[in-house]
Amino acid sequence: RLVESGGGLVMPGGSLRLSCVVSEFTITVTAMAWVRQVPGKGLEWVAGIGSDLRTHYINSVNGRFTISRDNAKNTVYLQMNSLKPEDTAVYYCNTGMYWGQGTQVTVSS
């Protein structure tokens, strides 16, 4: 089970930190990702982190978002800085076939 939190309403230029707490299995050897979806549009992969801590980002968030993991807490994070209105979406935590319920991020003045 994956449970996201940390979403909300923020002004352009602001920051949010999303968390994804995983239960029922350990993430230690698992690659994790954040994926987002704008209503009416498809899923967009945003960032990923491997078990070796290597990270990857979609170009539009590179330099603004940081994905990290705390294996002791079985938790993955997404630090989002310099947020833009186009970052508005439901953000999902994902690994393999497992998905969280999503957390809404709205960037608006």
**Radius of gyration over C-alpha positions, nearest whole angstrom:** 13 Å
Helix-strand sequence: EEEEEEEEEEE
Q: How is the quaternary structure best described?
A: single chain
β-strand amount = over 45%
Low-pLDDT stretches: none
Class of secondary structure makeup: mainly beta
Kindly report the average pLDDT value.
95
Number of strands: 11
CA distance, first residue to last residue: 34 Å
Overall form? globular
Number of helices: 0
Considering the chains and any ligands shown, give keywords for the structure:
109 residues; mainly beta
Secondary-structure topology with pairs:
Blueprint: E1 2-5, E2 8-10, E3 16-22, E4 32-37, E5 43-49, E6 55-57, E7 65-70, E8 75-80, E9 89-95, E10 98-99, E11 103-107
Parallel strand pairs: 2-11
Antiparallel strand pairs: 1-3, 3-8, 4-5, 4-9, 5-6, 7-8, 9-10, 9-11
Explain this structure.
It is a single chain. This protein has no helices and eleven strands. It is an all-beta fold and 109 residues long. The strands form two sheets. Strands 2, 4, 5, 6, 9, 10 and 11 form a seven-stranded mixed β-sheet that branches. Strands 1-3-8-7 form a four-stranded antiparallel β-sheet, with no helix packed on it.
